[in-house]
Specification:
The chain has 325 residues and is of the alpha+beta class. It contains 14 helices and 9 strands. The protein has a 4-stranded antiparallel sheet, sandwiched between helices. It has a 3-stranded antiparallel sheet with strand order 7-8-9.
Length: 325
């Protein structure tokens, strides 16, 4: 007999798998070490609270990061983050198979570099190898995570999840955070990453199916549409904004909406793409030069390897080596 979704979530096998996935690379953290000190007791207690329906999400610990802009992160307890992982393990496959190919945030085999490479391919293809002018519409959803409507999100989840107990658990997680009346999901939750893709999948469908835009890709709340006509792209932005207002209770950020040619350079995910070169955004390069150290050199090497950035890479490498002595 097949297990229900909820039975899959609280199964011991899934709870222990969730711990293994969550704790990978985090076991030196004080709160994770404390949880691991009585690991079996804590995991069995989590499983029992889910099974009995007594599980309740604990409050978050807020803190601020600057990477590069100021962001307010809300950190859940280790118990809750293991629960988030257990939920995602089970429900993510239900939605993953529905997502469009060109959604790149927080998905296996995707990521920022894959998105930039795909945009570069789109630019070459749509411009016939730079033999015709191509424009890029670049947009950003305004305050996306703070604006997600809880009721709208839950209705999207309920379309695919027919198990009442799983929906009840998702209501518990979603309701554990708000920045207004039934609004907002926290930056930092694993569940928020999946919820963001589920919520904005409706935008993906609208652009691809209703507007029938061929060259469209999205990374979280940033997206790009390519076309040969500037006026058409501006009209597309108006259509998208109206759709977001009406269906998702969101809006485009008016100061982060640009239409540029490939020759002018298209700023996307820390890179600036041009016909004969892809360079690292100046602000990103300056931040790398300022922060380079032995601990992040591998990451920075990866950033440089996807751009024409040999000189920057050598400077960053030299600085990190000097700091190591």
């Amino acid at each position: 007999m097949n297990k229900s979704l909820f039975e899959q979530i609280y199964s011991l096998e899934n709870i222990f798998t969730a711990w293994a996935r969550f704790s990978d690379g985090k076991r030196s953290k004080a709160d994770v070490m404390a949880f691991e000190f009585r690991l079996e007791d804590n995991l069995f207690a989590l499983r029992d609270s889910l099974l009995s329906g007594e599980y309740r999400h604990d409050p978050y610990k807020p803190f601020t990061i600057y990477d590069p802009k100021q962001r307010r992160i809300h950190k859940a307890t280790v118990k809750d983050r293991v629960a988030h992982q257990a939920v995602v393990n089970v429900i993510e496959p239900l939605f993953e198979k529905r997502f469009i190919y060109d959604s790149y945030s927080c998905r296996v085999g995707k990521g920022t570099h894959a998105a930039v490479n795909r945009l570069r391919t789109f630019l070459r293809e749509s411009s016939h190898n730079h033999t015709r002018t191509i424009y890029a519409l670049k947009c950003d959803v305004k305050k996306f995570f703070a604006s997600v409507n809880h009721d709208t999100l839950l209705s999207m989840l309920a379309r695919q999840i027919k198990d009442p107990k799983t929906i009840e658990l998702l209501e518990n997680i979603i309701g554990s955070f708000s920045v207004g009346v039934c609004r907002g999901i926290p930056l930092g939750n694993l569940t928020s990453q999946l919820f963001a893709n589920i919520y904005l999948h409706e935008l993906d469908r609208y652009v691809k199916i209703t507007l029938r835009e061929k060259y469209y890709l999205r990374y979280c709340d940033d997206f790009v549409v390519l076309g040969e006509n500037r006026k058409h792209l501006l009209a597309t932005a108006d259509d998208v904004n109206e759709f977001l207002n009406r269906e998702l209770l969101l809006s485009l950020h008016p100061k982060k909406l640009f239409v540029r040619t490939w020759t002018q350079g298209i700023d996307f995910l820390g890179y600036v793409l041009m016909p004969h070169a892809t360079v690292i955004r100046p602000k990103t390069a300056l931040r790398m030069l300022r922060r380079a150290n032995p601990d992040n050199i591998v990451s920075y090497h990866g950033v440089c390897s996807h751009a024409d950035a040999f000189e920057l890479e050598q400077i960053v490498l030299t600085k990190s080596i000097n700091l190591d002595f």
